[in-house]
């Protein structure tokens, strides 16, 4: 069975979330003032994997290969750009 799950993100550049194996990240957004990421998961997968995420603000230095772009989130005066950096570190 598949479900959509969400994980809250911190406003730090590099972070990791734990998710069921086979998770496919879908989108990022603001929910109630919190930066969130949503993903499609296979609930039956007991194994967990680490998913490395990177968040960059507009105007911040961006590496040559930041990872797979997930989306941009506006939070008041701040604009965040979120990448799936799994496998890059």
| Number of distinct helices | 0
Shape: globular
Summing up helix and strand content along with how strands pair, one would put the structural category as mainly beta
Which residues form runs of ≥5 with pLDDT under 50? none
Give the SSE string: EEEEEEE
Question: Rg, please?
Answer: 13 Å
Q: Could you tell me the mean pLDDT? A: 94
Helix content: under 10%
Overview features:
mainly beta, 4-stranded antiparallel β-sheet, 3-stranded antiparallel β-sheet
Note down, in words, how this protein is organized.
The protein is mainly β and 89 residues long. The chain has one domain (2-84). It has no helices and seven strands. It has strands at residues 2-8, 14-20, 24-31, 34-42, 48-57, 68-75, 78-84. A four-stranded antiparallel sheet has the order 2-5-7-6, with no helix packed on it. Strands 1-4-3 form a three-stranded antiparallel sheet, with no helix packed on it. Strand 3 and strand 4 form a beta hairpin. The model has no long low-confidence stretch (mean pLDDT 94).
Chain-wise SSE layout:
Elements: E1 2-8, E2 14-20, E3 24-31, E4 34-42, E5 48-57, E6 68-75, E7 78-84
Antiparallel strand pairs: 1-4, 2-5, 3-4, 5-7, 6-7
């Amino acid at each position: 069975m598949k479900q959509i799950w969400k994980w809250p993100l911190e406003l730090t550049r590099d972070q990791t979330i734990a998710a069921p194996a086979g998770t496919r990240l879908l989108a990022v957004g603001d929910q109630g003032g919190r930066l969130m990421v949503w993903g499609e998961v296979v609930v039956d997968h007991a194994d967990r994997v680490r998913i490395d995420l990177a968040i960059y603000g507009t105007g911040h230095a961006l590496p040559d290969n930041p990872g797979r772009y997930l989306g941009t989130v506006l939070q008041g005066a701040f604009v965040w750009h979120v990448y799936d950096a799994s496998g890059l570190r």
